[in-house]
Automatic annotation (TrEMBL):
The gene is BCAM. This is Basal cell adhesion molecule isoform X2. Residues 1-99, 104-214, 231-312, 320-398, 405-483 form the Ig-like domain. PROSITE patterns: IG_LIKE (PS50835). Pfam families: C2-set_2, Ig_2, Ig_3, V-set. The chain crosses the membrane at residues 506-528. Keywords: Disulfide bond, Glycoprotein, Immunoglobulin domain, Membrane, Repeat, Transmembrane, Transmembrane helix. It is found in: Membrane. Its main location: membrane. Gene3D superfamilies: Immunoglobulins.
Length: 585
């Protein structure tokens, strides 16, 4: 490779004790120029460089008599002759051909920046590819969309290449290739590039590709495409109130001018003219339905080319629903009724009735017969368009069923005969429904106010908690629901009620004994406080109290414990004696 060192070897065959080795440079005319020599005597070598011919750095001989070329250049590509003189053994020579390889610099391509017409009937310059400073001269190949172009070097109307090689002052070679083609309309999106293939030592090769490029072509319009963009449906419907885009594309280049118009009474109403081919209609209404057109203004097009296209814009709409009844409808129990749902829309909408998300039927009319309280609730009329997704409306009404109330009880536990006992606590629950909402009352006091029952469906409930008695067993407990249309009643029965067990009397007696013992303990405690008094806890004699004992006061200032529990009989003692402490205990 260029820049590396080259060592040329010359080794005599056989065993020679003394010989002279000489190196010569053979020029293109065959004249030899002596470069260096070496005399070999046994193991000793005497080397000498005679003429480097202006080479820098100069030629050198190593210790084995080999010719060394440092920093090889393209100018070193010569024939080098080695001559060996061995006296009586004779003289012989051999020739080495030195080849110096240089990798070219980066490949550059210069495309034609002009607009190429596909209507011309001759080959036009496409691009120039340069591969500078290589050795030996490389090869340039052209590609289109990754496929090699088989282009001859002879000039012809369809395409050819022109190649030029220049030897630079450095001795390196620069190659230039110019591509000529007759472009076609199919080349408008084609990608072109050139590739340089160069040789390396030992039979190897390398390649360098240029950047890719595209052509700017001029060709007339042949076809025009006109369509409705998003959000149209598969059938071309657009929803009222949305923004709609109309797209128009011609296949000419450069992009032609587009004119959008609307046909009304066979007259063109121009809407927009631009080079993009896009028309946006904001917030379309049903009045925007109609015929729209797009025309390409290309004066280079053929006379028979179809440069105008039209389409039908269909705006789908759905007006609010109308019911034959108001928001509420009152009917009587066991009666029949029908409700109509009307709608205006395009395309024709489909109607469906539902209640509690359960389909009831299709069509504009909802018929209800043998109406019960379960029929009450909210009914929905749903209008939709299967051909236009997301376009739907809903209208509802509430059905009120008037009639006398219904009553149902919540069963009480236990239910076995004779399982109730006197004093058992029971909670009774009564459910009722009707319209107007019924009022609930009990035959016993303590019932809770009526409130909506879990599960809905118009039921209300009230509860009553009481103790079971023999009287209730005989008469029962009744729950009555009433409204302006009538009333309904349910009686809760308990059957036979067993009396309380003997254990209850034992418990009462135990409590009484406990209270008596407590009173005795209190009395004993009081006596202990008054120890040392002569008249304590026995009947005292009449007379004054013992010395140091305060007299009993009747002024109302007695201490609570003296006038209360402990002196509960003091007044009686006063009537019987002198007001002493008789019967104090």
């Amino acid at each position: 490779m260029r820049g590396e060192s080259a060592t040329l070897d010359c080794t005599p065959l056989g065993t020679q004790g003394h010989f002279v080795l000489e190196w010569f440079l053979a020029d293109r005319s065959g004249v030899r120029h002596r470069l260096a020599s070496a005399e070999v005597q046994g193991s000793e070598l005497q080397a000498r460089v005679h003429d480097s011919r202006g080479r820098s750095p100069p030629y050198q001989l190593d210790s084995r008599g080999r010719l060394v070329l440092t920093n090889a250049q393209v100018g070193d590509e010569r024939d080098y002759v080695c001559v060996v003189r061995a006296g009586a053994a004779g003289t012989t020579e051999a020739t080495t051909q030195l080849r110096v390889f240089a990798k070219p610099e980066a490949t550059e391509v210069i495309p034609n920046k002009g607009i190429l017409s596909v209507t011309d009937n001759f080959a036009q310059e496409i691009a120039v590819c340069n591969s500078p400073n290589g050795n030996p001269a490389p090869q340039i190949t052209w590609y289109r969309d990754g496929q090699r172009l088989e282009v001859p070097m002879e000039v012809n109307p369809e395409g050819y290449t022109a190649t030029r090689t220049v030897r630079e002052a450095s001795g390196l070679l620069s190659l230039t290739s110019t591509l000529y083609l007759r472009p076609g309309k199919a080349d408008r999106d084609a990608s072109f590039h050139c590739s340089v293939r160069y040789r390396l030592p030992a039979g190897q090769e390398g390649h360098l590709d240029s950047p890719s490029f595209h052509l700017s072509l001029h060709y007339p319009t042949e076809h025009v495409h006109f369509w409705v963009g998003s959000p149209s449906t598969a059938e071309g419907w657009v929803r009222e109130g949305e923004s709609v885009q109309l797209f128009c594309r011609g296949d000419g280049s450069p992009s032609p001018e587009y004119t959008f118009f609307r046909l009304q009474d066979k007259q063109e109403d121009v809407l927009k003219t631009d080079l993009e081919g896009n028309l946006t209609l904001d917030g379309v209404q049903r009045a925007h339905s109609g015929t729209y057109g797009c025309r390409v203004e290309d004066y280079d097009a053929a006379e028979d080319a179809e440069l105008s296209q039209t389409l039908e814009l269909r705006v789908a709409y759905l007006d609010p629903l109308e019911l034959s009844t108001g928001e509420e409808l009152s009917v009587h129990l066991n009666s029949s009724t029908a409700v109509n749902c009307s709608v205006q829309g395009l395309p024709a909408p489909a109607l469906r009735w539902t209640k509690d998300s359960i389909p009831l039927g299709n069509g504009p009319t909802l018929s209800l017969s043998k109406i019960t309280f379960d029929s009450a609730g909210t009914y929905f009329c749903e209008a939709s368009m299967p051909r236009v997704p997301l376009l739907s409306r809903t209208r509802s009404f509430k059905l009120l069923v008037e009639g006398p109330p219904e009553v149902k009880p919540e069963e009480t536990q236990p239910q076995a005969k004779g399982s109730w006992r006197e004093g058992d606590e029971v909670r009774l629950v009564c459910f009722a429904r009707g319209f107007p909402e019924p009022k609930l009352s009990w035959s016993q006091l303590g019932g809770s106010p009526a409130e909506p029952a879990p599960g809905g469906q118009g039921w209300v409930s009230s509860s009553l908690t009481l103790k079971v008695t023999s009287a209730l067993s005989r008469d029962g407990v009744s729950c009555e629901a009433s409204n302006p249309h009538g009333n309904a009643r349910h009686v809760f029965h308990f059957g036979a009620v067993a009396p309380q067990t003997a254990q209850a009397g034992v418990a009462v007696m135990a409590v009484a004994i406990s209270v008596g013992l407590l009173l005795l303990v209190v009395a004993a405690f009081y006596c202990m406080r008054r120890k040392g008094r002569p008249g304590c806890c026995r009947r005292g004699e009449k007379g004054a109290p013992p010395p140091g004992e305060p007299e009993l006061s009747h002024s109302g200032s007695e201490r609570p414990e003296q006038t209360g529990l402990l002196l509960g009989s003091a007044s009686g003692g006063a009537r019987r004696g002198s007001g002493g402490f008789r019967d104090e205990c």
